[in-house]
Amino acid sequence: METSITHTPSPRSELHVREDYQARYGFSDPEEYLLKAPKGIRHDVVEMISQLKKEPEWMRQIRHEALDAFFAKPMPQWGDTELLNAIDFDNICYFVKSTKGTEKSWDDVPDKIKRTFDRLGIPEAEQKFLGGVSAQYESEVVYHSLHDDLTKQGIMFLDMDSGLREHEDIVRKYFGTVIPYADNKFAALNTAAWSGGSFIYVPPGVNVKIPLQAYFRINARNMGQFERTLIIADKGSRVHYIEGCTAPTYSSDSLHSAVVELIAMEGAYIRYTTIQNWSNNVYNLVTKRAVAYADATVEWVDANLGSKLTTKFPCVYLVGERAKAEILSVAFAGDGQHQDAGAKVIHAAPNTTSRITSKSISRGGGRASYRGLVKVYPNATNCKVSVECDALLLDENSRSDTYPTMEIAGEDVRIEHEARVSKIAEEQIFYLQSRGLTEDQARMLIVNGFFEPFVKELPMEYAVEMNRLIELEMEGSVG
Amino acid sequence: MSADQTLLTPSRANDAGLEKLWGHILGSHNGPPWLLEQRQQALDVYRSTPLPSRVSHLWRYSDPGMFLVNDGDLLPVAAPGVPREVPAALKEELDRELLAGGAYLCNSVVMKTALDSKLADAGVVIMDLHEAVVKLPDLVQAHLGTLVGPQSGKFEAFTNAAWSGGILIYVPKGVVLAKPVHILATLHGEFADHANGVAAIAQRLLVIVEEDAELTLIDESGDGADGAGARVYTITEIVAGVGARVKYVPIQHWNHKTIAFTTVRARLDRDAQFETVMTTLGGQTSKTDCGAVMAGRGAESNMFGLAIGAGRQQYDHHTVQDHQSGTTRSDLHFKVALRGRASSAYTGLIRIEDKAPYCEAYQENRNLILSPGAKAESIPELEILNNEVRCTHGATVGKVDPQEVFYLGSRGIEPSEAVRLIVTGFVGPILDRIPDAVRDRVHGLVLSHLGDM
Q: Which ipTM did the prediction report?
């Protein structure tokens, strides 16, 4: 029952969800930094980040070009424009450096940061022999380790800064190829200000048997975190990557705008699991995209529990024959939250298949949206697509939206989409109560059952954590 | 983006074109002051409203510039040689007494109306809208533009300003029409080839069905012999009173040169029942927005639609199921079959307001793609602001199952005939809902539109 990233659970009957978030994740350390950039994003800030990291010239140039693109691009005209337009880009700090560099051993990490991660359970994760752990604190990765046997197999698992330093040729070849900076305003911002994130390369035919993990945390107030992740699974290899994220609860807003690029070469398999539990003042505007070559499989397993506004649509481009995409998206929107999540699949090759499953729960005035796109190009014959969206509304103040888009060219396709919105049926509650459960327990059981297809895809320790988080979110949902 | 920017406000040239149109309307129809004011306000809205943004789902698949009224566009209501005779099919239905009443319009101008004399005595009205604004000003003024007004959108504003013809149908309290009313609108003239612009024809239909009254209305556009290719703007407003039952059957088969912009809204009072059976076969580009607003408890809307596209036809259908009141129900089945290089976009919105509990809403969109060049888009949208609901939607896109063709082949049926059978079976449940008076003819239209598979 002891899990990798939880603490000993407190008796839940005494808890209220936000209080508990405070106790478990809401702690903040006094802000002490080696270096903190001035607020606002400008060319000199970008220059400073690049100089500090002693980056090659090409990366410095990309950052500046991306910043110009960020300035030039208008804010999105769709989605929750009201919340998006409330972002004050000038009141955000775009770079904070908290330690001198990446430590190789846990013992070398400064005590204060170690305490933070202790409370988040990072060392336990390592003790459980999870593949490698990397933890990002503010802008930079502070601790990182990789089991020796993985290193011997040629697997590279580094923070993105070290990745650029040590494997510049690979990074240069793939960086920004899946998500160019001109893709959207937030991808441009990330490319200009990126710091940290994970770099993973799995050589041909290598099967990474244990999941690789990263943990992201924002500590400073008005902080922007722009991690950049690049995962390359070479021909026939397999890898599972897990990320988690939290932030302390400040009254002013923070911005998390990551860019994640996955490349699955012929026959490769990548699964990318996210459990996003930012505090309710974080804007989580993320661009995640994968390219799957022939016979490759990409799976996004994506849970969104926290944040003020999440806009995240994990995407897979199926560019090789028989490539496969599976996207499992779960959202829980509580008071003051808008989970604008979804999925995108582009079928650009014949015989490709995709399956999207979305589950959302709205309660306490929260709003959960599914926004998706399935596009089939004319040459992509014999494609199969299935999209399923389920939404539960737990009270009358909450809102659920479904905006699936299907653009289909070509006759040789089979597309199915289904969506349902409902509340928990009174009969089900009544039945469970007749079996001796309280109303609270009955609701919990039904919600757990609703999320079951998602939770069963998680490794054990994450499944337990996920169930705990759902339980906490459900606190006080009765009455 | 820049192309859109330049189109944001109508250019001077457009305004000059509009002035010409505007003068024409004022010159042709001297309406009462309230109507002139309504038209003027609508024209102001049209001019000040920017072109719709392509970002919104409603305009993602159609270029709004296509519907702009341009310099040189003309309003050909008085085109010489407009046939005054009622087209044969409608005449036959009237002669065989299959209908309760009917009307024939050409280039938006009402050429003839007909109504069973007993129903006329009972107070039923089928009247040229120009005549109605003079003879029944209170009734018309109370409803005209309330469901689709200038604020509904730029082109709806244009239609409100420039409508040159239309029909009022009024069914008083408790009157039940056992037979359908059939309205036929046609085009005449070779406007599409006009050197300076095309014809912009705006027409509207106002339907008022009072408490416990019942009406079936066939609203046919095109008679298969239209000489013209024009831009046709149509507004249909349907007001259904408490417990009223309205069946609305639009059948659109304009020729393949016509560009059609159609907006239909029905407002359902308490316990009103509304059924739509939509058939779209014609037009080069046809953009239709059809919606029901459930404004009273117990109201119910059932929409059925079929669209068959061929050649390079472009369809853009939008449906709205707007649950503004609690304990209301809606259902929708929309089927699309496409061959050649035809394309179809379907966007459908179900919205359940926060103050509207105990609603049920369903929506189903099925697309059958019959050739490699055809294209189908589907965006079924749900916006649910209340938890006491049951709401589902489904959408599919697929081709004819080769196994079905193989099976029919094993029974001695040629593959092309097999595909025709399968497509007819696909749209059959919707065709079955078309009133007897026109069903066989519409069935024939569907078959001929499917052509040789």
A: 0.72
